[in-house]
Amino acid sequence: MTLNHMNSRNAALGIACAAIAAIGFSLKSIFIKSAFGYGVDSVTLLALRMGFSLPFFVVMLCWERQRQKKLSGQDWSAIIALSTAYYLFNYLDFLGLQSISASLERMIQFLYPTMTVLLSAWLYKKALGGKVIVAMLLSYLGITLVFMHDITPQTNFGLGVGLVFASAMFYAIYLVGAGHVIPRIGVKRFTAQAMLIASFASLLQFGLTHPMSALHQPNAVYHLAIAMALLSTVLPVFMLSAGMRLIGSANTSLIGSIGPVFTIYLAHVFLGEQISSMQLLGATLVLVGVVFISRNSKESEIGSNKIL
């Protein structure tokens, strides 16, 4: 097998892995909204998702620990802080989805690259280029159009938008911090540890706020939670790691741009959410802005360890 053939094969495999990861992450909102239809609350559903995912990351961590050195106290402090940010990202996202559509939630979440750029510029005193600023304005104009399409008179709509936006901000904080921790720890080991701590936080929250009887849910809720754990958590994480190894995190992040479009389609098919020309225009502006920012940012700043 020639070197060029091997490179082409690795590139094709990397693209496939990145696409599978993006589709898996897109399914999460659909699973959540479907489960809410059976009356389960956010805390219980999040605990089920993380609980079903936990064994896979225990195995992943045990495998990685055999091959790497012990962590320092500084490393542990960073992991705990970033795991907390990841837990809050998930919790606020679940809460927000109770009040807004899956399509709008995915578009707001997809703004995270603009937030990582702003955080990096603020923390590390980096100037923003004119083209990046224009791309960010396009993204936020697009999300405004999607917002106008989805806006409803219900009381909690604005709260839902705010919760998901705050969720995306915590994810951006997680990514900016992860970009500095991963080179010392390794992406798989960091991912496993962060997911385990976030899982324990979710289970602890459930234990402190709910009776065990709250786990008595319809079978459909368990099926959706298991599907969310396997198809929207475990599988995408492994596929994403493989994609980044084969084609780099910047290319993997760009392929992830199919996610919001896929969510809009799935939400229309499975949840009955309407698609309008205004929504499609807004989605296009968001995608154009985010893709430009992703292509013009360092890999360490955007998409270095994307876990949705």
List keywords for this structure.
308 residues, disordered C terminus, globular, mainly alpha
List the helices and strands and how they pair.
Elements: H1 3-36, H2 42-65, H3 73-96, H4 102-109, H5 112-123, H6 130-150, H7 157-185, H8 187-209, H9 219-247, H10 249-255, H11 258-271, H12 277-295
Helix pairs in contact: 1-4, 1-9, 1-10, 1-11, 2-3, 2-8, 2-9, 3-7, 3-8, 4-7, 4-11, 5-7, 6-12, 7-8, 9-10
Radius of gyration: 19 Å
* Helical fraction: over 70%
Give the topology string: H per helix, E per strand.
HHHHHHHHHHHH
Number of domains: 1
- Give average pLDDT, whole number: 85
What is the overall silhouette? Answer: globular
Count up the helices: 12
Overall description:
It is a single chain. By secondary structure, this protein is mainly α. It has one domain. 79% of the residues lie in helices and 0% in strands. The chain has 12 helices and no strands. The radius of gyration is 19 Å and the shape is globular.
Provide a short characterization of the protein structure.
This protein is mainly alpha-helical and 308 residues long. Helix content is 79%, strand content 0%.
